[in-house]
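Re: the request from the purification team.
They wanted to know what the chain is likely to look like in 3D before they choose a buffer screen. I agreed to run a prediction and write the result into the notebook, where they can find it.
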Amino acid sequence: MFLKSYNLWHKLKLFLNNEKQRVYFHEKEIWFCHLGENVGFEQDGRGMSFLRPVLILKKFNNQVFWAIPLTKTIKNGDYYYSFCFNKKLKSTAILSQIRLIDAKRLKYKSGGLQTAEFTEIKEKIKHLLD
């Protein structure tokens, strides 16, 4: 059984909330994000900074957005969308794990999606809600 590092995550979360400045971001961008140490099957961040790449799906204002976590593991089905970004990295968007994120969690921009792929992801999300 793998033990999670909630104490380390809470220390970083305190810093992010109290000290970190928000960065400027746009829809369709892929950022590494401090997702943290989560419960059960929710996607966690990795390493000491608890980072995971996310796709910015919907920007509501300069503070918050909907994000979709990404994984290098190729998965198929209604809850996933696989794509290449930066012409060499294959990723899968885990559509079922969409969540609201504060921009204070963003660490650095890693790339972005083409409009056609972004539109496909939005269509798959709409189908999940039906």
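For the purification team: Helices lie at 6-18, 115-129.
Please add any questions underneath this entry.
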